[in-house]
């Protein structure tokens, strides 16, 4: 199955990302051992200049991984017609054991790159590059993630056999089967919406408090993660059925299809944005008290919280619109 | 506008002026780049519209086809099988079909000969209805010319051509020839009561698997082929050929990447001096990188648009003359039809990743190297 | 006040062709003054100028600008500081060929992200003050020597930097143009700018208005005159 154009594109991105990660990892080791701003030698200057390359490379990797994430899901959806039993992306991802791990790793790499770029941005605000060591320590942790993503993806595509009978969303996301996906689907729509609403209130409260008092950003980050998890649960258990106007169709991937006006993007993009920025704000608040960052960093964290809340609000509006405009009636 | 946007605008302004000053060199780069995009885009658009065409054709095909297998090969099937299959719950109808291939020794082409199901399409005895490929292959100058078919040396059978198909969705019908049942049995010497295969339609597509299972149990010597099996086979075939072309294009991409990397690292003395001046007057390494990325972005965008648009025209307006022989199939009669223009996000995203990502990857390191020169270099 | 303490600068560190361009410089350069660094070529005055102007970091030693230590700053912050604090006029003027005068003048403002129209207006004002208003849209390669230098001065002033740096400004100019240049420098001084120049031209260090002359030889300070 390697000879498929989108697969070649995905493997290309994964391969280049791995190369970048490996090289950056090597450089990170050098930084951790030798970085010394007091040293005015040429070698230190070269290291400073090399950090510009690493930042640029990581920004490029993040953009490419974002595109690859979209392509990965798109392609899984299109390839569904090649597998017996597959109706959408879920079936293709289920063809072998590597499909869903590859997707999760891709999402993980994307979030990791986003968070790293936030650290990078904060680091550049201080005249003594206060976070450089932290930043390159974190980078070393990201390297295996990128490599695992590439490896899993390769294993996934190499082990795709069209004679395998796979199970699709209609089987996976039904309350009748055991497993996380089914548990998500079997949560009652009412309970799920209440939980989502509760998470929304929690996000608004912690965000409002953090903006007002200038602290509690860690709690906000926690609220963001909770919101992310409950939002995905709500998508499976209640929002999708509204979009499909069919109470037993719970698939979180089919909503990305043109048949449903790509409605899924209106849900996922603000949700991912809100989560990434929210978690990032919590991460950055750890360094708020660094002397050289004290002036600019709090403003950046505040902005991130505001945008994060805006992202969650966007998700909320998209959810309400999906429910309001649907012909399906679950309650009442 | 925020300062960030204004900075980007100022950098982009500079980039545009700089590109315009080195027109010849940049046009050459964009041209080579666009050719790479063009080749890949043509292959992808063509394969995608073939896939689309196939699904369109198969949409009206029956869900299940039943074949009799003798000694591992397909054999003629008893018409009574159709009745048995018709009795399975969920089957709307089951009909035996008569069809086969005829090798035309005169022009060296293969035709598909069929007895149509639709009464409107059944020709009079002694006449045939043909796909547009057949008169074309035979070089018929006027309509109404009789068609002579020879099954073996010294044999000649005359048919009148009742009419020819329009070449609308012609991929699978351009080599088609329709006969009535009597003529067909006579022409191919098939005894009454035997058929090529049996086709069944099913009310609920979700039940196909169950019906196939029941049928296989009741008629173990029969082979059941579903519509999605056929579709899958075609998809795989076209995917595989597209992938093969793309893999070949990879060689071209690699050559282009080397060319681009070479060009990005081997700047002229004039360009090096310019970047030295920029750094001396207060541009940071980041600013120079951003400016150079604008340059790469504009070049990529230009080449991508140019390559995609010409590929679109090549495939959908001119019928992909450069790739059609590889992608369409191995039948002698190539269908003569216009592909339905169709491009989707998946294709464009794939294309962008396959062409722009290697270019950026190849130029990033040279860009950084150029950008990280000493600011005081121009003073020495 | 710009203060240098025990500043040394090595080029090609650790390689066989290592050169010590500056050997332990201690120097104070006053703000609100015209200072000239003089000395033969190879005496290290251009290297000193580039360190004073935050263009390069010293190999050892300390540089402070108005009390703030700048010698240990990462290059990026050094650049940020430099483009708002210093304006540069280079020996060979270093205008970019193919761009118009005004585009050249606006170049140092690009990374700052200022409003395009405002920056353009400021550039035109500067050009008008230097009698170049009618040449604003002309490509720089069509300018005469004196006009080229004035365009370079306009570029040095675009970000309203308080300190103007000039490296051998009169090396390629005849006496009349040199006098014209000195007039411009005195006018800048009158505006409140600090001017620091290198030169081995007696017409410059003997000129009226020069507050301090620092003489250099072989990477060390040979004498200071007020």
From TrEMBL, chain A:
Originating organism: Thioclava marina
Top-level taxon of the source organism: Bacteria
Protein name: Uncharacterized protein
Ranges that cross the membrane: 52-73, 103-119, 139-158, 191-212, 219-243, 263-284, 305-324
Keywords: Membrane, Transmembrane, Transmembrane helix
Automatic annotation (TrEMBL), chain B:
Keyword terms, alphabetized: Cell membrane, Membrane, Transmembrane, Transmembrane helix
Keyword Membrane: yes
Broad class of the protein's primary localization: membrane
Ranges annotated as spanning the membrane: 27-50, 243-261, 301-327, 348-371
Compartments where located: Cell membrane
Cited Pfam families: FtsX
Domain ABC3 transporter permease C-terminal: 268-374
Keyword Cell inner membrane (UniProt): no
Membrane topology: Multi-pass membrane protein
Family that this chain belongs to: Belongs to the ABC-4 integral membrane protein family. LolC/E subfamily.
UniProt-recorded name of the protein: ABC transporter permease
Lineage: Bacteria, Pseudomonadati, Pseudomonadota, Alphaproteobacteria, Rhodobacterales
Automatic annotation (TrEMBL), chain C:
Gene3D superfamilies per UniProt: P-loop containing nucleotide triphosphate hydrolases (3.40.50.300)
InterPro entries: AAA+_ATPase, ABC_transporter-like_ATP-bd, ABC_transpr_LolD-like, MacB-like_ATP-bd, P-loop_NTPase
Keyword terms, alphabetized: ATP-binding, Nucleotide-binding, Transport
Ranges that cross the membrane: none
Residue stretches making up the ABC transporter domain: 2-226
GO molecular function, one term: ATP binding
Source taxon at top rank: Bacteria
Record-given protein name: ABC transporter ATP-binding protein
Higher taxonomy: Bacteria, Pseudomonadati, Pseudomonadota, Alphaproteobacteria, Rhodobacterales
